[in-house]
Design a protein that fits this description.
The structure is a homodimer.
Chain A: E1 2-9, H1 11-14, H2 17-28, E2 34-38, H3 43-50, E3 56-58, E4 61-63, H4 66-90, E5 95-98, E6 106-110, E7 122-129, H5 131-139, E8 143-146, E9 149-152, E10 155-158, H6 161-172, E11 176-184, E12 202-204, H7 205-213, H8 222-233, E13 238-243, H9 247-250, E14 258-261
Parallel strand pairs in A: 1-2, 1-11, 2-8, 5-8, 11-13, 12-14
Antiparallel strand pairs in A: 3-4, 6-7, 9-10, 13-14
Family (chains A, B): Belongs to the acetylglutamate kinase family. ArgB subfamily.
Pathway (chains A, B): Amino-acid biosynthesis; L-arginine biosynthesis; N(2)-acetyl-L-ornithine from L-glutamate: step 2/4
Function (chains A, B): Catalyzes the ATP-dependent phosphorylation of N-acetyl-L-glutamate.
C-alpha cells in the first residue's frame, strides 16, 4: 500500500507565525500523499474576548455556547484554515480546506448531556468518515486541510482535532500505510519528564504496557498515548508523537520523536 | 449536455434568516447539478464595527485592508459558508464549501493599484478555473458552495461574488448547459423601475440592444446586464436575473424573472 501522512498541529505552532511558516514549508515538501489537521490556537479566545464573549472551560474543555460556536466557526473554519490553504498553495502544495460538514466527510453527533453540557461539541462515531471523497482528492494530488469542526442536524460542532486526526487515520488505514503524526511542544514521549533528551524513540505495545505498570509516563501524555494505541489497534500502521519543528525527520525513516507501533 | 444551475445569492437573503431558510430549502430541492455562490451580507461590516475596524468604501467597493481581509475571511469563508453547508447537509444536499484558494479552484491576482488601492481584492482572469475538480464533485452529486474569496501569492483576496459566479459559469459551460442565476431584491429586470410588475421576462441580445438605445434600463441594473451578456458571449447558455424567493420557478421552464439568452 502507498504511504499516507496524517499530521496534526496544535495551537503552539499556529500562534507563532515563524514556527508556522517553517512547519508549512516542511509539510509542503513531503512527497507522499498527506492530510493536515489543525487545532485552533489562542486566536479564537482572543477574538471572543474582543467581542466580549467569555471562554468557559470545564476539565480543560471549552464549553461551546452558540456565540462561542460562531467564533470558532469563523476562526477555525475561516481565518486559520484559509490562511493555511493560501500559504500552502503559494508553496506549490494543492491544499483544500475542509470541515467535517463539507462533503459530509465526517459525521458526528452533538455530545449528549450527562453531568456537563459541553454545548455545540461534536463526538465522532467510528466508521463515520466519507473516505471515498478523501481518497479521490489524495489521488489527484490534492491535500485536505481540516479545521477542527464537524456538523450534525444543521449546525456546526466544535470538535477535538486529535480525534479528527485519529478517525481519519483509521478510515484511510484501509487504503494506505498511514503514519499518524501528532505534533506537540516536546521532542517526543519522555522517559523522564524533567529531561527533554529522554525521548523514547520507539514504543511498541509491549514496551508501552511494561512502562505503564512502572508509572513512567507523565499524566499529561497518557491521553495521547491511549489515543495513539487506540488508532494502532484500529489498523493504523504507525503513530508518531513529536515536535512540529522535527517534521521532516519525523516523516522519514530515522525519526526524532516517539514512533508507536503494534 | 446536462443542465447545471449556478446560483448567486447576495446579502439581502443572507441577512434574513427566514428568507435564507426558504432559499436553501428551494435550492436543496433542485434535482440537477448545482453550484451556490454566496455574498457577504452585513455580518462582516457588523463584526468589523464590533472589533473597531472601520469599513471604507470607494465607488461602492469595500477597501480591503489587512484587518478587513481577516474579517471577511472569517465571516465569508468561515461563518456564512459553514452555516450554509451545515444547513444544506441537513436538507440532504451534499454541500462542500470552497473558496478560490481551495484546490486552487480559481486563480486570481491582487488588483493592481491605479488611481485607487483597493487593498486585498482579487481580480479573476479568464481561463483561471480548475474545472476538472468541480466536474468531479458535480458528478459525485456533491454541491460546491463558494464564498466570495480567492487567493494569490499566499494571501486570501476579497472577491466579487457576481464575478465568481460568472467565471464558474463560463468555465463549466464547456461541460454543461449552464443557467446562471443572479438572485437580487427585485422580481427581475424592470421595464419601468417604479413598477415592480414590469418584469421583462425574456431578454435576448437583440431586444437588449434595442432597449439600451431607448434608455429603458435603470442605472443600477446596467452592470448586471453587462455581466450577464459577457457570460452569454463567452458561451453560457442562459442567465436569469430574479428574486431569491422565486428560485423554484426560476429553475424551471416557466421563469418568473428575466431570462437572458444569446
Amino acid at each position: 500500500m502507498n504511504k499516507l501522512f496524517i499530521i496534526k498541529i496544535g495551537g503552539n505552532v499556529l500562534d507563532n507565525p515563524e514556527a508556522l511558516k517553517k512547519f508549512l514549508a516542511d509539510f509542503a515538501s513531503i512527497k507522499e500523499p498527506k492530510i493536515l489537521i489543525h487545532g485552533g490556537g489562542k486566536i479564537a479566545t482572543k477574538l471572543g474576548e474582543q467581542l466580549g464573549i467569555q471562554s468557559n472551560y470545564i476539565n480543560g474543555r471549552r464549553i461551546t455556547d452558540s456565540q462561542t460556536l460562531d467564533v470558532v466557526t469563523m476562526v477555525y473554519g475561516g481565518l486559520v484554515n484559509k490562511q493555511i490553504v493560501a500559504s500552502l498553495q503559494q508553496l506549490g502544495c494543492n491544499a483544500l480546506g475542509l470541515t467535517g460538514a463539507d462533503g459530509n466527510v465526517i459525521k458526528a453527533v452533538k455530545r449528549p448531556i450527562k453531568d456537563i453540557d459541553y454545548g455545540y461539541v461534536g463526538d465522532i462515531k467510528p466508521d463515520s468518515v466519507n473516505s471515498s471523497l478523501l481518497y479521490f482528492l489524495l489521488k489527484q494530488n490534492t491535500v485536505p486541510v481540516f479545521a477542527p469542526l464537524t456538523h450534525a442536524d444543521g449546525t456546526m460542532l466544535n470538535t477535538n482535532a486529535d480525534t479528527i486526526a485519529s478517525v481519519l487515520a483509521v478510515a484511510l488505514g484501509k487504503h494506505f500505510d498511514v503514519r499518524l503524526i501528532f505534533c506537540f511542544e516536546k521532542k517526543g514521549v519522555l522517559r523522564d519528564v524533567n529531561d527533554p533528551d529522554s525521548v523514547i524513540r520507539h514504543l511498541p505495545k509491549s514496551s508501552y504496557n511494561d512502562l505503564l505498570t512502572k508509572n513512567v509516563f507523565a499524566d499529561g501524555i497518557l491521553p495521547k498515548l491511549e489515543n495513539a494505541f487506540a488508532a494502532i489497534h484500529a489498523g493504523v500502521k504507525e503513530v508518531l508523537i513529536g515536535e512540529a519543528s522535527d517534521l521532516t525527520k519525523n516523516t522519514g525513516l530515522e525519526t526524532e520523536g516517539t514512533l508507536i507501533t503494534s
